[in-house]
């Protein structure tokens, strides 16, 4: 017997783009439809009504980064305390890298990797009345107010994608369910940075959404009143690149020109947070194209460190000089460089941090600003399980001083505290100098 499905997605600023992609994958399925999808903010989710009809299968979809998995688990328990039975699924970077811990956090299923094909397959199975292993929607499997971590069928509860998503096969944003958000134009990363989860989730094959499909999405959402067009890519200047470190300027200009034509009164944001540009892709020709089209006044450059030794150890495959050159090029066109930096690597020495601080000083003439991150040993990366090198009091004061001058922003203190909580055998702090 076919069952009615209702999908509830919990979305915030961190997973909004992923939720948009999943909604777009579901809304045209005959088993679902746009009227069977709802999206809620985390604060709203515990107040939502769930089900009550035997013919309806309720599916709650959430996602988690490693530093947010505990909060996501707490939110799941709050929803479950008052809601009727539902199936809970967790996707995102953490479940992909450590699916067992997502199940231990209380979720019935977790999605590993790209979610579009997984959620479509799940919808078809549930609509056909198929009973999944240890299905918590069956009252016989409910043992408490929150969904238990079932000890059996663990492998069946890990939902993996069987295919690589081709971006043109699905719209970038939903067509029927109005959901404003970033327009994802690329996925995957050819680089192998030791701290990054991206290749483990999306693979090393760089895939690009075609300019024509992006133009269609922009035109649709511009007609719906969306004036800020935000284009999202792991490496903005790598869009449609045929070779490493060589931006495809013809493709960039074609893309931005189509976007401008589709939204003549809109503002285009490209190379701005949460996207970034690898410094070794920055050329005067590429930045001149951005100057003609984009509205953002800042361009994010993925620098990560001012120490060449650190850049080599983490596999960044660019130089400190590339960071300086890219920042100066960006500044010469009237943009402000916003350089991403990271400290706390497990093999980091005080001299490496001093090199990063020196880079900050050298980039002052370019009016650069910096987003500081603290290294976290994320699961699924080459540095998983390592111990960060924590900051000395003097180094913290130095960064705080730079922040007071308006040079540095970021959640590095919160990230350092999270890394400290996750590290059982904390090494001694590097000595002050």
In quaternary terms, these chains amount to single chain
Instruction: Determine and state the CATH class of the largest domain.
Output: Alpha Beta
CATH superfamily of the largest domain: tm_1862 like domain
Number of spatially distinct domains: 2
Helix content: 25-40%
Order of helices and strands: EHEEHEHHEHEEEHEHEHEHEHHEHEHEH
Residue windows where pLDDT falls under 50 for at least 5 positions? 134-152, 425-433
What is the end-to-end distance?
Answer: 72 Å
Spatial sequence of strands, sheet with the most strands: 2-1-3-4-5-6
How would the global form be characterised?
A: globular
Note the total helix count. 14
Percent of residues in beta strands? 15-25%
Summed over residues and divided by their number, the pLDDT gives a mean of 89
Q: Mind describing the biggest β-sheet?
A: 6 strands, parallel
**CATH level 3 topology of the largest domain:** pyruvate-formate lyase- activating enzyme
Count of DSSP strands: 15
User: What Rg, in angstroms, do the CA atoms define?
Assistant: 23 Å
Q: Structural class, judged by helices and strands?
A: alpha/beta
CATH architecture of the largest domain: Alpha-Beta Horseshoe
Task: Write a structural description.
This protein is of the alpha/beta class and 433 residues long. It has two domains: 4-160, 3-Layer(aba) Sandwich (Rossmann fold); 167-422, tm_1862 like domain (pyruvate-formate lyase- activating enzyme, Alpha-Beta Horseshoe). It is 34% helix and 16% strand. It has 14 helices and 15 strands. The protein has helices at 16-26, 69-82, 93-97, 99-104, 116-127, 198-202, 211-223, 249-262, 284-293, 308-314, 320-332, 350-362, 393-404, 412-422; strands spanning 4-10, 37-40, 56-63, 87-91, 109-112, 158-160, 183-184, 186-187, 207-208, 228-232, 267-269, 298-304, 336-343, 369-374, 408-409. It has a six-stranded parallel sheet, with helices on both faces. The chain is globular and about 65 Å long.
